[in-house]
Design a protein that fits this description.
The protein has 297 residues and is α/β, with parallel strands linked by helices. It has one domain: Alpha-Beta Barrel (TIM Barrel), CATH 3.20.20. The protein is globular. 51% of the residues are buried.
């Protein structure tokens, strides 16, 4: 069973592994059934999805579980639209797909582009739709997610702009060796600790960009494949005690990620991670100007 931890100031004890439902995109019915069984087996009690995952299909698949299992999961979704009406309509469509009257968490998806940030946070922006949804009891909490090297800096702006309950951003060994990113990430962590804001992380098992290699997974980055490598990558992220780890956007990797988390005892040494990085030719999956929307985790 995966250990639980208070999810920021929400009062919910979420498993430190959060199921990233983007992984259900294009999964077979058999694999979808096996996935639910795995979640039960490891005690996973938190699902994260988004309206854009599989053009809404992932929400529909989660919705098929909710009639019988809604009370077993902290349920989170996201909208990537930036104006009030767009975000509101998008969220209500999500509720229909999920077959629920409300969710636990609604997030602004990948809010890292400065111009989009100004739109979402300004008059008639998406933030107004999230706040309204919370006031109406359609969501209990609101948050923000982000991809790219400027995610922690933009999240710091966001949590200083509104009463934010959660943030979501990348965390893996290569990106945390980028001095600027690591500095902003650590400042974000400290601020979130003070404000009781939950920190979710993504891209834990990213190995490197695909570049010219054949794409064999539904992840937009090339992931680790071997169990020992996934163990190190997952254990390294879990060694950051303030964070939660969202699973990969290829559900076929879920058993290995859960197995790795189940065996976690302590953070791997710097020497072990350097050796992994060298032997597996790890690389940064974001460029310096990468603020485009990445829809998978």
């Amino acid at each position: 069973m995966i250990p639980t931890k208070l999810f920021g100031g929400t009062g919910h004890r979420s498993t430190r592994i959060i199921f990233g439902a983007a992984g259900l995109n294009n999964a077979t019915p058999e694999l979808i059934e096996q996935t639910l069984e795995l979640l039960f087996q490891y005690g996973i009690n938190h699902i994260d999805v988004a309206s854009s995952y599989g053009n809404g299909e992932c929400e529909k698949l989660i919705g098929a579980w909710m009639g019988e299992h809604r009370d077993r999961f902290f349920l989170a979704t996201k909208t990537g639209l930036r104006t009030y009406q767009q975000a509101k309509d998008d969220f209500h469509t999500s509720l229909e797909r999920l077959k629920v009257d409300n969710v636990d968490l609604l997030q602004m998806h990948n809010l890292t582009n400065p111009d989009e940030w100004e739109t979402a946070m300004g008059p008639g922006g998406a933030l107004e739709a999230l706040i309204e949804a919370k006031e109406q009891g359609l969501t209990r909490f609101i948050g923000v997610s982000g991809h790219g090297l400027n995610a922690p800096a933009m999240h710091l702006r966001s949590i200083n702009r509104f009463e934010c309950n959660t943030v979501l951003l990348p965390c893996n060994y290569p990106i945390m060796n980028e001095t600027g990113y690591a500095g902003d990430f650590n400042r974000l962590i400290e601020t979130c600790r003070q404000k009781e804001i939950a920190v979710q992380t993504i891209k834990s098992i990213a190995r490197r960009p695909w570049e010219d290699r054949e794409k064999t997974r539904t992840t937009w980055y090339e992931p680790f494949e071997e169990q020992d490598d996934i163990n190190l990558a997952v254990h390294w992220v879990l060694g950051h005690e303030d964070v939660f780890l969202n699973t990969s956007s290829d559900v076929r990797l879920l058993p290995k990620i859960l197995k790795a988390a189940d065996s976690y005892e302590s953070m791997p040494s710097e020497e072990a991670m350097k050796e992994l990085a060298e032997n597996r030719h790890m690389g940064l999956i974001f460029s310096g100007n990468d603020t485009i929307m990445k829809q998978s985790v």
